[in-house]
Write a structure and sequence with these properties.
- By secondary structure, this protein is of the alpha+beta class.
- The chain folds into two domains: 152 residues, no CATH class; 32 residues, no CATH class.
- Strands 2-3-4-5-6 form a five-stranded mixed beta sheet.
- A hairpin with a 3-residue loop joins β3 and β4.
- It is elongated and about 80 Å long.
- 15% of the residues are buried.
């Protein structure tokens, strides 16, 4: 049974930021701002990415330029992202860097009753004093990772590549070595019977 205490424990970790980064650097204060346009710059570094549990992203540095347009009921953000993410090659499991760039928009609405499942729309309670853009920026970076990330041909770790199947379907040196049984183990197999 999934007890209430387990759910509460999970929610507390989520809320307190132990599972999710609550980086002060990605918060934008809204209170006291008059309607108009504002510009912000964020640098998402290793500390930022470490706050999120995603095995695909090992770190990196992404520069974000944000333009905010504030109205009475809606705040619209336009983001421009550019940088590199550290991840692992799907072929050789070695570390590699992937360039990230793109543009996104986020609409922030204020309501105590409205719920939205629209993409790129955030609902904040009436009178919210700030918006934390961290999870949105992280998501924008994460969706820009290619489904398969691998080094350019010839850049993979040669020790790992020898275990891969060659393009013509023949066994690699590493696979042949794994398939061939050490004579000592072969002798032990005879004892089993």
């Amino acid at each position: 049974m999934f007890g209430g205490l387990q759910i509460l424990s999970y929610l507390c970790k989520f809320k307190s930021g132990k599972k999710m980064n609550r980086n002060e650097d990605t918060k934008v204060v809204l209170i006291g701002l008059k309607p108009g346009r504002y510009s912000y710059r964020f640098t998402l570094g290793d500390d930022f990415f470490a706050g999120y549990e995603n095995e695909e992203i090992g770190g990196g540095k992404v520069e974000v330029e944000a333009e905010m347009e504030k109205n009475e009921r809606v705040v619209l953000f336009r983001f421009r992202l550019e940088g590199e993410i550290e991840t692992w090659c799907d072929r050789c499991l070695g570390e590699m860097k992937v360039k990230i760039e793109g543009e996104e928009t986020l609409e922030v609405r204020f309501s105590d009753t409205e719920v939205s499942d629209e993409e790129n729309v955030a609902i904040l309670p009436e009178g919210a004093s700030e918006v934390d853009l961290g999870r949105w920026l992280y998501e924008y970076v994460a969706v820009r990772l290619p489904l398969r990330h691998q080094h350019e041909e010839g850049e993979c770790d040669p020790e790992m590549v020898k275990y891969l199947v060659s393009k013509d379907g023949e066994e690699s040196e590493g696979q042949r070595a794994e398939r061939e049984i050490d004579p000592r183990w072969e002798a032990l197999k005879g004892l089993k019977q």
